[in-house]
Amino acid sequence: MNVGTQMTKRGEMANKTLDELVEMFRHHFPHPDPVVEFTVDSPTLLDAIARAVDGRDRAGKMYSEGTCVRFSSKEEFKYELCVRHREVANAKNFDDVYDVLRAARPWGIGDCTTYNCAVRIAAYLGFEPENYLYLHAGPKQGWRRLTGLKKEKRHRVPMTEVPKALHVLSVKKIEDFFCEMRDAVHPGLLE
């Protein structure tokens, strides 16, 4: 159970405004993905791809979201991305990187792993998400709960549709916000 869910169950999120939830998030969740830092320090793009897909930090500890992905799926994904490394290298922004990864993913690699790997590889290339909020797993649940769109099918939402109160966060942090605070948000916060 994530920390935001625990805080919601303890009643710490009750009667909060969206601005207050954002401030609570900023206070409780300041830490970046340690795999991003390790990936950025890669000597080559092929090494960055391998590190991003492996999902391990400098000390060899696997990032928690990667522990449930089959090793064989990761290996196939890594291979496919290495084959397409020129497409990755020619990306002009985060969205291009994400689209290459989404097209290359084999069975067993879902939206969450695709997004996390794209963030890591894009960081190596000097890009961050800017134009879209990417929806998968927890962030998709949070987005659906905030907007009331129970059947949301998109995998990304233009930032112009994201409430202004969240724009004090980077796009990556907004994705984290929806993941961590998914149980605390609801349509009433938009009124």
Mean pLDDT: 90
* Strands side by side in the biggest sheet: 1-2
Number of helices: 10
Write down how many β-strands occur, each being a DSSP E stretch of 2 or more residues: 2
Shape: globular
Task: Supply the helix-strand structural class.
Answer: mainly alpha
Low-confidence stretches: none
User: What's the story with the biggest beta sheet?
Assistant: 2 strands, antiparallel
Helix content: 40-55%
What is the count of structural domains?
2
Short description:
The protein is mostly helical and 191 residues long. It folds into two domains: 3-31 and 131-190, no CATH class; 34-125, no CATH class.
Helix-strand blueprint:
Layout: H1 3-9, H2 18-28, H3 34-40, H4 45-54, H5 71-83, H6 85-89, H7 94-104, H8 111-125, E1 132-134, H9 137-147, E2 156-158, H10 171-180
Helix pairs in contact: 3-4, 3-8, 4-5, 4-8, 7-8, 9-10
